[in-house]
Amino acid sequence: MSKLRILHLVGSAQNDFYCNLSRLYAQDCLTGIADQLLYDFEIAYITPDLLWRFPPSLSSEDIAITKPMSLFKAIEFLTARNIDLVLPQMFCIPGMTHYRSLLDLLKIPYIGNTPDIMAITAHKARAKAIVAAAGVKVPRGEILRSGDIPTIKPPAVVKPASSDNSLGVTLVKDATEYETALKTGFEYAKEVIVEEYIELGREVRCGIIVKDGELVGLPLEEYLVNSHKPIRNYADKLQQGDDGNLYLTAKDNIKAWIVNTHDPITQKVQEMAKKCHQALGCRHYSLFDFRIDPNGEPWFLEAGLYCSFAPKSVISSMAKATGIPLNELLIIAINETLG
Length: 339
Prior knowledge:
The chain is an alpha+beta fold. Strand 1 (4-11), helix 1 (16-32) and strand 2 form a beta-alpha-beta unit. It is built from 11 helices and 16 strands. The mean pLDDT is 91. The radius of gyration is 20 Å and the shape is globular. The protein has 3 domains: 2-109, Rossmann fold, CATH 3.40.50.20; 139-194, ATP-grasp fold, A domain (Dna Ligase, domain 1), CATH 3.30.1490.20; 199-336, D-amino Acid Aminotransferase, Chain A, domain 1 (2-Layer Sandwich), CATH 3.30.470.20. Strands 9, 10, 11, 14, 15 and 16 form a 6-stranded antiparallel β-sheet that branches. The chain has a 4-stranded mixed β-sheet with strand order 3-2-1-4.
């Protein structure tokens, strides 16, 4: 069997935060699936100035000495490399949409969801509307733009309509807190969602993978929330070290853990997640956050259609817990992508 030439599409066309986040996961992936018998790996690294680099590794030193090139030159380079498959690892909106569209134009297959699906799920209100129409419970909410007044009575959650990693999310317990919460939310997006707070409960994430054309529900990952900490925030997921690099904080078995598959909530959430996957038109894999109310009912919060195929990626962790090691997970995705 000839080796597959896989391109890791890394970086961000938006800002340094997403650039560093992408590099964090991509580096972990390159280390975790470094099977030189099966794959030849290449890297495309995009920076917020929209320039491309094709470094031999994601070390700061290799990136610094690699000559940057324009989009036109990058397309010339890419088409000459005969790439078999792309693994997109960009988390910014352009990375999820424009760059995947470019791959479609170049007719280079890639693992993961298409740009139209990524655009829909990047906007939390649109994703909620679609899954709600499919019969999935969602918290009642409203979209606000600058100058709008919230009508939902607290407690309520205020969050940017299109931002990840819990950036700009605030729990409002009293109407007097709305002004500050909205100001925070608008720092990250032009639209803000205000939605009813779903009482605890629990908070879980459910991953779905497609294997041989069938939807497979993975074990749930649960997150530490309680009366003292009723919602998750940015610090629960990422932190910046003294070296300026980002580090994952949600993988310590204290803030997050895999739920026993015999837990009765598992099947209920997996059924909801499969409905979300089908309603949104996902392919290859999907990932959804749910709030479980005190009656044990799951409520859809948002979709996060990412998998970097890094050992610390959520879907990778879930798959490992069900006996699917990382390399097998990648092969399943490759088979679905290439048919």
